[in-house]
Every structure is written in structure tokens, then in C-alpha cells.
Amino acid sequence: MSTHDRSAPDSALQFSVHGLAQQDLAQAQRTRSGRLKMLLVWLVCAAPVIASYFTYYVLRPQGRVNHGDLITPSRPMPADGRLALHDVQGRAVSVAALKGQWLLVSVAGGACAAECERHLYWQRQLREVLGKDKDRLDRVWLVNDGEPPRPAVLPGLSAPGSWVLQADREALSGWLVPAAGQALSAHLYLVDPRGDWMMRWPADADPADIKKDLLRLMKANNSWDEAGR
To answer: Which spans are transmembrane here (predicted)?
Structure first.
């Protein structure tokens, strides 16, 4: 066999190896490109909420203090299979139905004692004082003990923008967390339009202070948030 004949298989092998290397390189480039595109899409979707938080908590004038506790990182609402939401008629309610709005949330058992009634009243009043922005905020009572809501408190919760929902106690406790030494029912909680819990007001919060926080947040995200459902 001539020298030329012996070198032919080696050349073919080198060509094959080179071709495979080029394919691997192209595949790696496509993978990096796909990941970059996914990251850009995520940034575009998250940018409005991030911007409103940045405006509210970083670019605020000196001396302005938020009264609620910022939850960092924010905590996403549990999925349907875990939170298991049901309305007062026992119909299943999807987690997705709550998204797209700011949510002012209270948690209490169905008997709704004095603290619960006070929170329901504050929720109603705080939504009203937002004026033209009130349709961007829904008030939500999450019943966490499986008991039916006391009928006497339901008439005030039939207006648009109001939710009374049974929620799985364990899943709820894994999402919303009270301050040290407090019960879950002691606070009002704020959930952003993505469904992320992002603020908790102290148990002894003044409703006037909660109002100030809400007004500032509505103003901070006014450029991107929708008018309401």
C-alpha cells in the first residue's frame, strides 16, 4: 500500500473528529443563546415589579420610613395543588385568579373573632381610601381552620374586589409567616400582582401608616400596573 493510501483513513478520521467538534460547539452556542433569551424574557417580565420596589425602598427621600416589614426575598404563592383554595360555596378557586392584583390579606378562622372583624374593617376602609387606585387592590380573607365563615360578617364581603377563601392550613403557614411571638392572624399581609408575598404590617400597626405605605406603593408602580380586573 502506498503512503498516500495509508494516509487516507487518517484524513477521514480527522475530518470526522473536526466535524463532531464543530457540531458540539454549535450545540453549545445554541444552548447559551437559548438560556440568554430565557433570562432576558424573565428580566422583562420582572422588571416592572423590581423597578417599583427599587423606587419605593431605594430612591425614596431621606426621612421617609415604610411602616410594613419588607419580605426579602419575596415568597411566591403556593401552587393550586398545595394551597387548595375554595370559596364559601365550596368551589375550587385557582391561584391564578388572584394574580394581576395587589392583595391585602388577612388570615383567621371561620368564627372571625374581634381581631378578625377589625382586620376585615381595615381592609375595606384601606381599599376605599386609595380612591382611583382602589381597583388595583383586592382584599382577601383566608380562612385557615376549615370552618365555614360566620354568616354575620359575610354581607360586607360581597362587593367586587373581595375574596373569602378557605385555604390549606399547612400550605398557608409555609407561605405567610408572622413576626416572632405573634399568631398568623395578628397581621395584615401584602401580596404583589405576581402572587409574591412582599410585606407584613406589625400586629399593632396604625391603619394610617398602612394607608401611607399603600399609597406610596401605588404611586411607585403606577407607570406599569394595570387599572384592575
So the answer is: 39-59
**Of 159, 185, 177, 163, which Cα lies nearest the Cα of 95?**
163
User: Tens digits of per-residue pLDDT, 85-125?
Assistant: 999 999 999 999 999 999 999 999 999 999 999 999 999 99
Of the candidates 219, 215, 186, the one whose C-alpha atom is nearest the C-alpha of residue 67 is 215
Domain contains 201: yes
pLDDT above 70 (res 150): yes
User: Is the domain of 90 the same as that of 161?
Assistant: yes
Same domain, 148 and 200: yes
- Return the pLDDT at 220: 81
CB 137 within 8 A of CB 127: yes
Contact (Cβ atoms closer than 8 angstroms) between residue 135 and residue 102: no
Closest among 112, 186, 98 to 145, alpha carbons compared: 112
Note whether 196 and 102 are same-domain residues. yes
Cell numbers describing residue 100: 394581576
Residue 104 phi/psi, 5-degree rounding, is -100, 110
Based on the structure, what is the number of domains in the chain? 2
| Stated pTM of the model | 0.72
